[in-house]
Amino acid sequence: MPSGTRHRSRLDKFMKVLSYLLLFVLFIGTPVSLSAQSTYYVSLSGDNNNAGTQNSPWRTIQYSVDKTAPGDVVLVENGTYRESVTITRSGNPSAYITLKSVNQWGAKIEIPTSGKTDGVKIAANYITLDGFEIYDPDLTSQDTGNGVTVYKNHHVHILNNKIYNFGGSGIQLVHFDYALVENNITFGNAKYNPNQSSGISLFQARAVDDLPGYHIIVRNNRSYGNINLVLSGNPIGTTDGNGILIDNFHNKGASDFPVNYPHRTLVENNLAYDNGGKGVQVFESDFVDVFNNTAYHNNTDTQNTGTWRAELSLVYSNNTVWRNNIGVAQLGPGILGSNRAILIAQSENTIWENNLTYNGSPGDISINFSNTSVTQEDMSNNLLGVDPQFISPGSEDFSLNESSPAVDSGSDQIATFLDINYHSRTPGQVDLGAFERGSSVATDVENTPSPSAFTLTGNYPNPFINRTEILYHLKESTHVYLELYNAAGQRMAVLVDQELPPGEYSTPVDGSTLPSGVYFYRLRAGNTSQVKTIVRTR
After folding, report:
1. Nearest-CA neighbor of 188 among 150, 134, 237?
2. Are 335 and 467 within one domain?
3. Statement to judge: residues 200 and 309 lie in one domain
4. Rounded distance, CA 498 to CA 474, Å?
5. Measured in whole angstroms, how far is the alpha carbon of residue 200 from the centre of its chain?
6. Quick check: helix, strand or coil at residue 330?
7. What is the pTM of this model?
8. Fewest Cβ atoms closer than 10 Å to its Cβ: which of 203, 253, 514, 536?
9. CA quadruple 122, 124, 125, 130: dihedral sign
10. Which H or E run includes 172?
11. What is the mean pLDDT of the chain?
């Protein structure tokens, strides 16, 4: 056993708080200190009359979240849970409540066939939802609920979920502030609810304080095949079914809160393709940064007869920055002939730098400028009408060929030097789009469930000041490499490099000499690996 690594005998010593909460520390000036209380367990073999421990788990997710207090973690074992879940108990700034699938996508929330609304509704603050598969097993035209709804609250993290087959949005946030939506997959949603329904939809953000930095982050998500089928009553027919929608942060028409959202929002490293609406749509929303996204062959919906159709769409929005994105439009007959890579409509004070556009015709800039003072001359260092040379988009592989003009063509003025798969980006050699070619961190890590050979639970505490511990479980004897990297992709330490037997482990990290900031650790066991994020604060 490696020095400083302690072999643990009980799973209930596992982490109390999930690591992705830390990401806000990078952008928000006030550090978050997480405290732990209780860890509860849910299993299909359990009973709600049990104690909720690992050896005596509860049976339903709803029962468990109704028992939580600030700092509690609910771990849900593998299986299909036929229930809708509503979270009403809040954590607090120093103690989030976490609802987590023990194995990514291992716990499945299948909404009941009667009385269907949302898969998970979050009506509380300081909540983390992590790692579930959430779906409607028999979607009909009467079903308009969302996979995950966040309504009238703040400080919510939606991480690592797979959400599909809902009549409404896959993920929808309404009247909210401080949200992290990261590393989710949403597909086949938005069919039967015409109201702001998309793969990921954020509507009318409302500030709860005046702290600087990014309050809202939408990052590293994959959103595809979402489409509206029901007409909205709008003269142009259907209006949404986007991959990612940032909508009405002006709070237009909101008599109870008619205030423009003042904080910056980050939309970064997302992949949107084959959606009925736009790939990434910013509509009536100011102060949005859109970096390193890939949007491909969206706007497939022919019921939408409007001509404002684009992969990357900016409408009625000001003070935005679009940088290092790739938009590839697909032209077709009829209204599909209006598809463009970029739309800029009635929007001002916007920066477009180092983006790539293509529509199958080399040299065609594929941009629609509509009622805006922005012109092509205002767009610097963009590759317009250039084939990005994806490896195999027909097979959903949107990584770049070695000869792609998008390689090393990006700007360094981005939020983080990591791509959609948490591969590193090298300053001065940043690629366009969501996928970085030739990275130095976790090049074998994909957006898949936890490998069967091990479970990387996370680290606690997180954020940390001087010391934290990384917790993981080995299911078989294997050689383990545990490495620590900084945000630039440089390896800072090798924490474990040794053959280990099955069991539960805790490896300490001494960060007393590390600068404050975001770090990443990678666990490799056999031929598989996984990456998680860690933050040091002072």
Report:
1. 134
2. no
3. yes
4. 13
5. 9
6. coil
7. 0.82
8. 253
9. negative
10. strand 171-182
11. 88
